[in-house]
Amino acid sequence: MDEKPHDDPSPAEAPPDGPEGGAPTHHAHPPLSPEFRRRAAWAAAALFVLALFFGAWGLWRVIAPASGDLKSQLAISESSARRLREQNEVLAQRVATLSRSDQISRDANRDVQRTLSERDEEIAGLRADVAFYERLVGATAQRRGLSVHAIRFQPQGDTAWHFTTTLTQNLNRGAVSSGGLQLQIEGTRDGKREVLAWSMLRQDQAAAGLPYSFKYFQQVEGDIFLPEGFEPVRVQVQLKPRSGAAVEQSFTWADSTRDSPLNGTGEDAPPTAGG
């Protein structure tokens, strides 16, 4: 019987790596214990917190000023505020001083203006008196007999009026002119013409005329009463001397109730004393 040829073994077969001739063996690390893992986690957390702390500290150092800078800035601010308060007090005092000076100047100027106005009025009055005397008794004065120089009315109430009449005469120098003065006022009431006699104006049926007696001039004063609704238009002055003919002169109510030369102002103003 034929024998099968025997296969020759492979020229070189690598011996098995493992102890038993199996697959290669890897050396494995021993497993980590739970305690080690906990400590590692705490260490990592601590490092993270420490990193955050140093990062925040560095950011604060960059952004926030140092405490010394804050104190310095506070001191500078307080010093500036103190200087501003001092300057404000100085300016307020200066303004108050200027205001007082300005008020004093205004008061003084007002007093001066009032004094000048009073002096001007006195001078105007004196000039009017001189002009009046010159026309009355001067060398070139026109000779006139008894006459009414002016009359002026001033209201005393709703219906009462006070009047001042200036009488003059220079025809008979040194001679005394005497007699009585009465008024008569013409006007309208309820659209109708009406004339008020002396007795009606004085509200006395037996009213006598106001007496006068002078050499050159005299002012005669009195009061009258106008009825309600009466609108005066013209005033008539009646002079009844003891000897000689009566004298009558008329004046408009408008001229008699406003400041004008006719009523005692300006160059024709009569003096306040009689003569």
Question: Summed up, what is this model?
Answer:
The protein is 40% helix and 24% strand.
Topology:
Blueprint: H1 34-63, H2 67-137, E1 147-155, E2 160-168, E3 177-189, E4 192-196, H3 198-202, E5 210-214, E6 217-225, E7 231-241, E8 247-252, H4 253-256
Antiparallel strand pairs: 1-2, 2-6, 3-4, 3-5, 3-7, 7-8
Description:
The chain has 275 residues and is α+β, with helices and mostly antiparallel strands. The chain folds into 2 domains: 50-141; 147-263, Immunoglobulin-like, CATH 2.60.40. The protein has helices at residues 34-63, 67-137, 198-202, 253-256; strands spanning 147-155, 160-168, 177-189, 192-196, 210-214, 217-225, 231-241, 247-252. The longest helix has 71 residues, at 67-137. It is rod-shaped and about 165 Å long.
Largest sheet: 5 strands, antiparallel
Q: What share of the residues lie within helices?
A: 40-55%
Strand content: 15-25%
Unreliable sequence segments: 260-269
Euclidean distance between termini CA atoms: 207 Å
**Under the CATH scheme, which class of the largest domain?**
Mainly Beta
Count of domain modules: 2
| Rg estimate, integer Å | 64 Å
CATH topology assignment of the largest domain: Immunoglobulin-like
CATH architectural label of the largest domain:
Sandwich
Number of helices, where a helix is a run of at least 4 consecutive DSSP H or I residues: 4
Please count the beta strands (DSSP E, at least 2 residues each).
Answer: 8
Order of helices and strands: HHEEEEHEEEEH
Shape type: rod-shaped
Class based on secondary structure composition and strand pairing: alpha+beta
Arithmetic mean of pLDDT = 79
